[in-house]
Fold each of these.
Amino acid sequence: MNFFRYDKVYDFVKISSYAIVLSAILFITSLVLMVKPGFSLGIDFAGGTIIQIQYDKQAPLQQIRGILEDIEAYKGVQVSEFGAPEEVLIKLPTATSQVDKNIGDEISEALKETGSFTIRRVDIVGPRVGDELKEKGTIALILALISIMVYVSYRYEWRFALAAVLALVHDIVIATGAIILFDIDLNLDVIAALLTLIGYSINDTIIIFDRIRETIGTRVNNSLSDVINEALSATLSRTILTSLTVFFVVLTLYLFGGEIIVGFSLPMLVGSIVGSYSSLFVASKLVVLMKFDLKKYNQKLADAEKKALEKKKMREMYERGRI
């Protein structure tokens, strides 16, 4: 299926000059958000207790907050609506008040005067476990980036590899900025979304770079901008179809999945847009900015092919006993 004329070449390189400015603004803004206000650590990393309760009518948030704040063991409690007026999420900074008591029963007893409700979920993570999860989540992200960097460096000329990795970092940083902007707790769901986004984004970029490399071999006398424009135009329908498929799936998750899955769906929603945008406009433009020399690259390919033919000829002569 083609949404665009197959024989029409669009000037992506010219448009990407403006896209780079937009990317720089979004990237710097995301970095500033990481510093201030910074991440809001979820229970997976910070430790503590989360209790989700459901009332049969609109929850009295102020009354709940006041009751729990008056209890010494629950100082610093956070009470918020969770997706619906009847749903309440209670976050306690401590794992539990007493080891020999059930925290759910304690909350039920403390809030019995606030109305009829049921406890739907109780999650408890100790601070030691939270630190361990934070460390492993960070290591997973770093190892994923390093592995992709090694693979792309092996497969492509170094400028293409560096451009692909920089575009990938661009996508992750902007998606992370969206996490902070929308006040989503940093937890394992978010880490899973970022790891998924890494795979999605680099796959899109590699497919486009493959087409650029193929076009380089058939357009020896063309300029680098012409080669990139032709390659991007040829893969445009595929990129749009893939992007829309992922976008509508994660949009459905975000709209109908509820608050419980927003830590995964929102980063993926932002990342699916930014990842496709960076593959088309950022990664290829970075190759141009790095002064990739098309003539030198073609000469290098020609020399490599010549050496391969010479080796093949020498091997054939050796096998026939002429050496």
Amino acid sequence: MDMLEVINTLNYGLLAELEVGHHLYWQLGNLKVHGQVFLTSWFVIALLVIVSVLATRNVQRVPSGMQNLMEYALEFIRDLAKNQIGEKEYRPWVPFIGTLFLFIFVSNWSGALVPWKLIELPAGELAAPTSDINTTVALALLSSLAYFYAGLSKRGLGYFAKYVEPTPILLPINILEDFTKPLSLSFRLFGNILADELVVAVFVLLVPLFIPLPVMILGLFTSAIQALIFATLAAAYIGEAMEGHGGEHHE
């Protein structure tokens, strides 16, 4: 009996079979979308909105509870953006960097804490939004658009001079770098979160009580690190685009 047969044998009641690459599709006119990504993304967005409303509905001069948590998160994001983009330029980018970090952080933690893949659907499987390559590529492309916009808005057409610096011979390599940045961002996040979800789901199926807990705790740590890496690199790329070639910001 191979591993797939063992997993199927241990499949009880409402627990779905552990499958990879099977999706719940919604047909919207001529457009086919991954329904499970929308479902879990809406869950993450709703959770963030609820926490934000609870934290700001009765703002106190001396913060406590949820307000204290959100102010700590805001201060952390401000420091991250300031360190990567620079003291003078970071403020307009705090909402973008903060949105990236919080959405990825909560999405990753949902994958580490909730065994999405074991919830039965008519077709396909649930998963954390960031364990789907479409989500991570979209976030990476948004980051690329952001640093192009930052460079052009700060330096105008002079931004493109970076492609021939320090010598025009490096033009192909500098152009290739713009393609490798989103690829690196998207595949790093996708691979780590998908692997963590699969490990947790397999352990929950095989030994559903206490053994998965250390793996889930480790997953929480690595998920937080992945969110921090993504947001830090996105901010660094934006700072680098505004600073120009040879600036203080590096990957």
Amino acid sequence: MSTMRISTAGLYAQGLQGMLQQQARVARTQQELVSQNKLQRAADDPAAMARAQRLDHALTQLQQQDRNATLVEHRLRSQESALSDVGTQLNRARELAIQANSGGMSAEDRKSVAVELRAVRAELLAIANRDDGNGRRLFSGSRDGVIPFADNAGGVTYAGDDGHNRVEVAPDQWVADGNPGSEVFLRVRTGDGLVRGGAAAGNTGTGVLQSSAIADHSAWGGAPLRVEFTDADTWRVLDGAGTELATGAYTDGMTLQAAGVQLTLTGAPAAGDAFTIAPAPVRDIFATLDGLAAALEAPVATGTERARRDNLVGAAIGDLATAQDHMLALRSTTGSRLAALDTALDARSAGDLTLTQSLSELRDVDFAEAASRLSLQLTALEAAQKTMLSVQRMSLFDRM
């Protein structure tokens, strides 16, 4: 028969170790209740801790996307306001052009209109250089810190670029915070947006182009055409290579139709006069206003000069109407982006709720369970302490 000896020191050490372990359990449970977080150390549950960190990172990204959306919304609303102001100025310019195109205005009246048109142009330039209230220009593209437009002797120059600042406003959802100034003010379609008609600069008659349009897209083919008068009452249509496509007789106020296009002319063109119709080019809005003001300021002494002015003013009226449509289209695009921000807000809210719930399941303490566990642990600790005290009082002399 063998016996096992337990020293008094070993007995005390074993009892002390048990109490320390129980105290550690009590302290951990108390810490969980105080912090309301049951993941105190990675060693306790490495997988849960790693998942919680990933969820924290995802929530941080959502918060950043929320801040991004706030900034983008501010810039888009600022752009929408600026485009509205541009539309107001263009509407005024078109009203002035129509007013100046009437036959009852004197030369001085037209010069006064030109002065107001130049004021409209200056206001448009100020809008084009407007900032968003945070030190960034609205229409400089992706080049922050530059004043996008400058007024030089030869016209307006652009120092921005064609870039779009695309910002993440929800997971995998990006929204541009505006349009570059080159797109808003410089590349503006002229004519009716599809074609633009005009009178040749060297015309000597009094013919005025009242309107031009596509009558049949399939018959036109998209190539520039030239209506040339072989004499005062006979016209022919030529393509870009000089091939004659159609001919006809002219009477004042008639609409010419040939090769898929139509032009309405008034007045008396002279032999050799010509009118063109071609795909509408782009032009900056400042140049359009400059040309209109210059046409109104030019002296008019003959019927030919009057017809030249009327052709320039009539073309500018059409260009301004198309520019107005251009701004409305940009406002519509801006509105679509603002609507996308609303959708992104819903996505962020749903994502935040899901992530928060998942994180809560990993971290949040069940107070009822933790309080019950703490009570049991305290009871066990108290029992261990009493046992240790009893052991300390034991002696061999008690057995004698």
Amino acid sequence: MSAKDTDWDGVRLHVVTGKGGTGKTTVAAALALALAAGGRRVLLVEVEGRQGIAQLFDVPPLPYEERRVAVAPDGGEVYALAIDTEEALIEYLEMFYNLKRAGKAMTKLGVVDFVTTIAPGLRDVILTGKTSEAVRRKEKNGAFVYDAVVMDAPPTGRITKFLNVNDEVSGLAKVGPVRNHADTVMRVVRSPETAVHFVTLLEEMPVQETMDGITELREVGLPVGGVFVNMEHPPLLAEDELAAAAGERLDLDEIVRGVKSAGLEDDAERVAAVLAAEAVAHARRTALQRREKERLERIEQPRYTLPLLSDGVDLAGLYDLARALREQGAA
């Protein structure tokens, strides 16, 4: 699938959010790899200071600079940036107020923490501003430095406030550099070049937060992207077996006979009971997934499904997820 056959033609800033525990950082990393395939250059930005990107790509903790962390299929490159709020604030002071020395002195006095605590909107402007600058940055020949930027953003419950920086700074500044900077950020965030994607599991709470988050974004005019259903458990039983397990109507004697035929004669009854309990739990989880999938079908956004990786998410698994996203048209 070529880059022009995707669901997100023209989008250059992909913001990835999701309820905690849904695999948001993993999906952001896989999306960056998918977008970079075919010789493109993509920047993956982390704003929460957890060094999750470094762990996924099995590299040392990232400094406050853009570094290549992976080569995508067909020669593309993924760069990563872990934004340090303190360093970014110093950079911001130098850029707009020529206060680099003062900024470094401020860190020693703890003023940076003070500023970002009493004016959290300023912190969000700094984080989103650094990302939007990377989206706009160009080479001397006029080409963009990065073909796309992927932001591993804060969780769903905070994403609207985080991105809607104009409202956040309205009480801080009506004019001047802070206001101008926020306006510049919002021009990027509200443009057709931005999409805010949601990561969810097929569970009640993540799905509800996804639906609520999409509604909140639309209410403030921010661009909604796709829904990434992560870690879907494929059904391991046939439909009639699922129905029997869900109704706890499994033939325990038959399971015992199967266990004995596998050579576990001595403890066959106990093993069979454990297997039956596992089958019941699996049937109920499958029914829950199907119910939540039906709820997600009410959302008119593109949906992508990523499988549960039985061996966990290592670098090879990340490439598998990226391939799945490309095959589904996400990149």
